[in-house]
Specification:
It is a single chain. The chain has a single domain, classed as Vaccinia Virus protein VP39 (Rossmann fold). 26% of the residues lie in helices and 28% in strands. The chain contains five helices and nine strands, in the order E-E-H-E-H-E-H-E-H-E-H-E-E-E. The strands form two sheets. A seven-stranded mixed β-sheet has the order 5-4-3-6-7-9-8, covered by helices on one side. A two-stranded antiparallel ribbon has the order 1-2. It is globular, with a radius of gyration of 16 Å. The N and C termini lie far apart (40 Å).
Length: 199
């Protein structure tokens, strides 16, 4: 079982996804990540996208800490069910039923819809075995869909190379926590906007 660390639903226990080849974000990594995001003012009233959501723990943490809207995207049916259960638990704790939404499907298929977005914060915690090229392809549709000042966070194994950032995104910080590295990216203002990017 994982838990929400802080915020309106702090201490709340969440269901975990058993038997997957991924691992939940540890409380130490989660606490460091969200302390940083809060210091940057990234959470209050934010629109948040949680890709490769697993149990939805990162998105639910964002909701507890004041995000206005969170979307969890998860392709595995069992994990998507856990996301829905955890979203329901958070809704009851917050007294709202419209904060966390779950989309069952592949990340690429979800991002193929140009009507989705823009977002203030995107959290991407793909399975560690996901090939680097597939991760790069998953990140590419985010170009032009982060709001001004928005941040993309990618969680990867420390043994993995830095993600291949698509033109239009640039890494501005990284933080290593043992076997986990967090990569922080933002819109690259020196790159021209992609054709057809939303305003």
């Amino acid at each position: 079982m994982s838990r929400i660390i802080a915020g309106a639903a702090g201490g709340l226990r969440l269901q975990s996804v058993p038997g997957r080849d991924t691992r939940p974000t540890t409380d130490r990594v989660k606490e460091s990540l969200f302390a940083r995001l809060e210091a940057w003012g990234m959470l209050r009233d934010a629109r948040v996208l949680d890709l490769f959501a697993g149990s939805g723990a990162l998105g639910c943490e964002a909701a507890s800490r004041g995000a206005a809207a969170v979307t969890l995207v998860e392709r595995h049916a069992g994990a998507a069910r856990v996301c829905r259960a955890n979203a329901g638990t958070v809704h009851r704790a917050l007294g709202r039923d419209d904060v966390v939404q779950v989309r069952h499907g592949a990340v690429g298929a979800y991002l193929a819809d140009p009507a989705e977005g823009p977002w203030d914060l995107v959290l991407a915690d793909p399975p560690y075995p996901l090939p680097d090229a597939e991760l790069a392809a998953a990140l590419a549709p985010l170009v032009g869909r982060l709001r001004e000042g928005g941040v993309l966070v990618v969680e990867r194994s420390t043994r993995s190379p830095e993600p291949a950032w698509p033109d239009g995104l640039r890494r501005f910080e990284q933080k290593r926590h043992g076997e986990t590295t967090l990569w922080f990216a933002e819109t690259d203002v020196t790159s021209p906007p992609p054709t057809g990017a939303p305003d």
